[in-house]
């Protein structure tokens, strides 16, 4: 039937999905078919049926589809199922995900059953998504549904997959109608793409420049400064496509469209270019993180973790808390120490601290034991797993371990001083074997502390004002780090503004417990800032904010930084 002149918006569509025996060529047999009628952007009638097969099903295909041999043996023959399906297909536009496969399976089944094949037009949701959702890289049925916020309850059964495909089709139907008025226009839209693929210049390439992605409209890169900051590519409607940062905005933004640039789905839709300057690279990192979370651009899949920093952390919301190692600081009520570079050395440090303070090592879930563990038998664990330990005693030991990182600027000296004190106490009590063991532990600790990069201190415990410099040290970004979070940040300004913002930042200091409370949304930002500071310790300027400093001290600190000197 000729549907060419029928309006696309007023047409009926039958969305189909098939399950097979998993074999190729003429051995491929239909085992199940599902169909969903779609009209006016809504799902209507459903049809599904198992189909009897000639050859036994393999155990693998039975596990994959959930269609057992017994179900196939009890299913109706192909002729009756396909006659009913042909009646439903008649006069409708047929839709499938990877339509070429389903069309081939069904046509082969119709031929074997001796039933006339309905010559109806087909649309493919993979092709529709490729054109109208180009930023979705993975176009499998479940992945595409997830990208379009479509919930998938079940898969690899014909009707369930047909319903998922129908919902994908409805989600993209408005974009299809905006580009094709009739069914014939829609078919031609994808037919032109197939015919011209071999002859056309590859999409997203500039004329005369091999390998350069093409933006949707000319972009004014000359308006970008060569300073740190964040740039945002947007489509013609103002929607953010990609957010990036650089210490030289103009150079980095142009690089996305340079010859040989890695192709990206969003480049062909870029029509507008936004930017915001910062004084420092750290400011650009923080702003990029915030803009990605606010704008949710499809070109930024995630802020990928590219650093080698780890944290020693202690969650205080579990029974008998433990020290653990992780790539991220913990959110919620916790103490986070670091960041530290070198996972092996940090893991050994945790082991040494556990032994020094007799802390447990058995994970967050506390097992119940009838007898002490090996560490308990050696006197290196208080054995709370026996359920007879005073929680206050354990907490005092834990506070002693965490206090090493909260008392001073860095925990290295405090750890060695604690080991020295324990060694002297054992010697005074004439426990010489214990003193010798502590001396060996002290020597190992000194070695580990020398190996670890970063700063051994609890992030939440040291409110401070940090100045991060511009590449040419002509300007500074000020960061107020209070309570394990960035309380405020911005370009360094006059003394009055500095004093006002410092007082406001200190007002955000958490008051609940030694761990403070770090919201989950702040964890990424905390890791970014702490990691950058640990890697640039010689470049930044810091001022402790344990109490609100006098305006004169703040002014002297800022003036010394602007003059290129370290404040005393």
Walk me through the structure:
This protein is α+β, with helices and mostly antiparallel strands and 568 residues long. It has 4 domains: 8-196, Ribonuclease H-like superfamily/Ribonuclease H (Nucleotidyltransferase, domain 5); 221-295, GIY-YIG endonuclease, CATH 3.40.1440.10; 309-454, no CATH class; 463-562, no CATH class. Helix content is 40%, strand content 18%. The chain has 18 helices and 17 strands. It has helices at residues 59-65, 69-73, 78-89, 99-113, 125-132, 141-147, 158-179, 183-196, 249-255, 281-295, 343-357, 374-377, 391-406, 411-428, 432-451, 495-506, 520-535, 551-562, and strands spanning 12-20, 30-39, 42-50, 93-96, 122-124, 229-234, 240-246, 272-277, 309-315, 324-326, 332-341, 453-454, 464-469, 476-482, 485-491, 517-518, 541-544. It has a 5-stranded mixed β-sheet with strand order 3-2-1-4-5, with helices on both faces. Strand 4, helix 4 (99-113) and strand 5 form a beta-alpha-beta unit.
Strand order of the biggest β-sheet: 3-2-1-4-5
Structural class: alpha+beta
CATH superfamily of the largest domain: Ribonuclease H-like superfamily/Ribonuclease H
**CATH topology term of the largest domain:** Nucleotidyltransferase, domain 5
**CATH architecture classification of the largest domain:** 2-Layer Sandwich
**Poorly predicted runs:** 192-210, 510-516
Distance between the termini: 87 Å
Basic shape: flat
- Mean pLDDT reading: 81
Strand content: 15-25%
Q: State the major sheet.
A: 5 strands, mixed
Number of helices: 18
The number of domains is 4
Number of strands: 17
CATH class of the largest domain equals: Alpha Beta
Radius of gyration: 33 Å
The helix fraction, in percent, is 25-40%
């Amino acid at each position: 039937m000729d549907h060419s002149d029928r309006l696309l918006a007023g047409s009926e569509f039958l969305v189909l999905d098939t399950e097979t025996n998993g074999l190729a060529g003429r051995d491929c047999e239909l085992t199940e078919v599902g169909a969903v009628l779609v009209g006016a952007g809504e799902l209507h009638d459903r049809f599904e049926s198992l189909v009897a097969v000639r050859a036994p099903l393999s155990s693998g295909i039975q596990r994959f589809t959930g269609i057992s041999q017994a179900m196939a043996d009890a299913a109706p023959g192909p002729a009756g199922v396909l006659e009913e399906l042909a009646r439903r297909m008649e006069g409708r536009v047929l839709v499938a995900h990877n339509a070429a496969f389903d069309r081939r399976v069904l046509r082969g089944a119709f031929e074997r059953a001796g039933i006339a094949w309905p010559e109806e037009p087909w649309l493919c949701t993979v092709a529709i998504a490729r054109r109208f959702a180009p930023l979705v890289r993975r176009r499998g049925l479940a992945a595409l549904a997830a990208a379009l916020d479509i919930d998938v309850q079940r898969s690899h059964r014909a009707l369930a997959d047909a319903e998922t495909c129908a919902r994908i089709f409805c989600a993209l139907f408005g974009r299809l109608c905006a580009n094709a008025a009739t069914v014939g226009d829609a078919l031609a839209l994808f037919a032109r793409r197939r015919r011209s693929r071999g002859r056309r210049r590859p999409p997203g390439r500039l004329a005369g420049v091999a390998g350069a992605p093409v933006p949707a409209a000319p972009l004014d890169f000359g308006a970008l400064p060569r300073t740190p900051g964040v740039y945002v590519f947007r489509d013609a409607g103002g929607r953010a496509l990609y957010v990036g940062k650089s210490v030289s905005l103009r150079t980095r933004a142009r690089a996305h469209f340079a010859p040989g640039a890695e192709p990206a789905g969003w480049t062909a839709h870029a029509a507008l270019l936004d930017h915001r300057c910062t004084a420092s690279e750290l400011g650009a990192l923080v702003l990029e993180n915030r803009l990605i979370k606010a704008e949710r651009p499809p070109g930024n899949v995630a802020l990928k973790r590219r650093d080698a920093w780890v944290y020693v952390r202690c969650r205080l919301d579990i029974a008998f808390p433990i020290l653990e190692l992780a790539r991220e600081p913990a959110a919620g009520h916790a103490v986070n120490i670091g960041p530290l570079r070198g996972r092996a050395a940090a893991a050994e440090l945790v082991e040494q601290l556990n032994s020094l303070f007799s802390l447990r090592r058995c994970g967050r879930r506390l097992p119940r034991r009838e007898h002490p563990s090996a560490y308990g038998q050696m006197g290196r664990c208080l054995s709370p797993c026996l359920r007879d330990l005073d929680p206050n005693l354990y907490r005092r030991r834990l506070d002693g371990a965490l206090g090493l990182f909260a008392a001073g600027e860095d925990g290295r000296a405090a750890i060695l001083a604690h080991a020295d004190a324990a060694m002297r106490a054992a010697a005074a009590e004439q426990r010489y074997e214990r003193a010798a063991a502590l001396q060996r532990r002290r020597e190992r600790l000194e070695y580990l502390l020398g190996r670890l990069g970063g700063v051994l201190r609890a992030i939440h415990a040291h409110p401070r004002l940090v100045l991060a410099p511009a590449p040419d040290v002509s300007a500074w970004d000020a960061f107020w780090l209070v309570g394990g979070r960035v309380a405020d940040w911005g370009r360094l300004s006059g003394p009055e503004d500095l004093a006002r913002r410092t007082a406001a930042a200190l007002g955000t200091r958490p008051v609940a417990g030694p761990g403070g409370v770090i919201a989950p949304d702040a964890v990424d930002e905390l890791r970014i800032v702490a990691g950058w500071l640990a890697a640039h310790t010689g470049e930044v300027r810091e001022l402790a904010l344990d109490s609100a400093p006098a305006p004169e001290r703040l002014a002297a600190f800022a003036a010394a930084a602007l003059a290129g000197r370290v404040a005393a």
